[in-house]
Description:
Layout: E1 13-18, H1 26-33, E2 39-42, E3 51-55, E4 58-62, E5 75-78, E6 83-84, H2 86-96, H3 103-106, E7 107-110, E8 114-115, H4 118-131, H5 143-151, H6 166-181, H7 191-204, E9 208-210, H8 212-221, E10 226-229, H9 253-260, E11 267-275, E12 278-280, H10 293-301, E13 314-316, E14 318-319, H11 320-330, E15 334-338, E16 349-357, E17 360-362, E18 375-381, H12 399-412, E19 416-420, E20 428-430
Parallel strand pairs: 1-10, 1-11, 2-5, 2-10, 5-7, 6-8, 7-9, 11-15, 14-16, 15-19
Antiparallel strand pairs: 3-4, 12-13, 16-17, 16-18, 19-20
Helix pairs in contact: 2-7, 4-5, 4-6
Bound molecules: guanosine-5'-diphosphate, 6-O-phosphoryl inosine monophosphate and magnesium ion (MG).
Amino acid sequence: xxxxxxxxxxKKVDVLLGLQWGDEGKGKVVDVxxxxxxxxxxxxxxxxxxxxxxxxxxxxxxxxxxxxxxxNNKLNVVGNGVVIDPIIFMKEIDALxxxxxxxxxxxxxxRKAHLIxxxxxxxxxxxxxxxxxxxxGSTLKGIGPTYMDKTGRNGLRIGDIETADFKTKYExxxxxxxxxxxxxxxxxxxxxxxxxxxxxxxxxxxFSLIDSEHLVNNERKAGKKVLxxxxxxxxxxIDFGSYPFVTSSNTITAGACTGLGVAPNQIGEVxxxxxxxxxxxxxxxxxxxxxxxxxERMRKAGHEFGATTGRPRRCGWIDLPAxxxxxxxxxxxxxxxxxxxxxxxxxxxxVCTKYAHKGEEIDYLPFDVLSEDMTPxxxxxxxxxxxxxxxxxxxxxxxxxxxxxxxxxNALETPITIVSVGPDRSxxxxxxxxxx
Length: 436
Ligand code: GDP
Ligand code: IMO
Ligand code: MG
């Protein structure tokens, strides 16, 4: 017997996160993996996220609520790293309430999660308008201004709504924001937004507001399995993404530590998810973007329109230097490839293996990724034309898809253990890789 905790014997927290510019299919795959877990926990981002799930012919888009919510008996936690807009949150609840049992017992919100105020949304819009052509292409959900108030130590947190002077705290922050808004050439009317927001705050009080870092660690210590669900993607990370065209949180594995209160040595598997090609919504560099008819066809075939804003997503070929970077930063242990079915109609596949940059060939993302001088160098691989959406086993995939998977595994030095071939829960092929 030892007096010391044997940390190795405790269950670790697994993480699932995006390796590209978001929308890799995180929602779908978290839903597929949920039966293997007891707790699903979102660790960062907010309603800028749109996570789509499909099953039984119904499609759901979640923004704040974790993607494990459709499985009974599973806990879903919105962690301290998330920013919550009570209006959007309550709308999500209203859309779910008839389909989900015991939502009040199964959906838990961290008291330390920050609140998005109506004036945060206005500040986001005013800032984007002032940037003109240089705009980030924000989802305008108030994400940047809310995280700025968090790091600037001015923010309001979910736990504040339980305090007696919440209204005063709110009014003080609102008037700070109004002073800033006055410096922009930006007109607004706060009245209706504020009314709806305050009403939603009242409704939020029916939910379990908890110290989620204790819950997550206690569940883990009790032998329960926890899956941390990321939002956005690594190339949108505030530190390692294509700055300044990024979001305002750490979207990477380290973000799961700070966004849930999980120690780094308690992280287990890291599932890195990527599309068989690549998309981006909003402004910023995208070396493999296809501005031609092929890109247009990808958008159509992949239904590449934003789940949150409906904006068309920019499309292009897969980018291996960017993926290698994302795998390194996140410590990815298993890869998940989605949307393999979309490539069925494209003939041969192009894979970017390097960039021509300043007269040199490089296989990494340079600091000046914003530079126009980044020409992708492609390798061509044989494509496939078979419809993959009806396949039920990885053993029946076309040889050239198998070849593509093995090529990527070798290049990325990481096993691909799940291949998604359609938006539905059932269109998921599990793959035994000899390395796992
Ligand atoms: P997330 O933000 O990472 O959860 O991804 P989104 O939900 O924003 O975007 C992914 C889109 O692709 C959604 O419309 C999904 O329903 C859809 N999707 C997910 N996996 C697949 C797949 O393997 N094939 C196809 N065709 N669609 C998929
Ligand atoms: P999910 O979780 C794709 C992009 C925006 C914009 C930039 C900053 O569904 O993958 P923000 O509103 O965060 O200030 O926007 O980040 N963006 C996303 N793109 N998927 C997302 O989330 C995104 N969340 C933000 O388009 O370029
Ligand atoms: Mg999305």
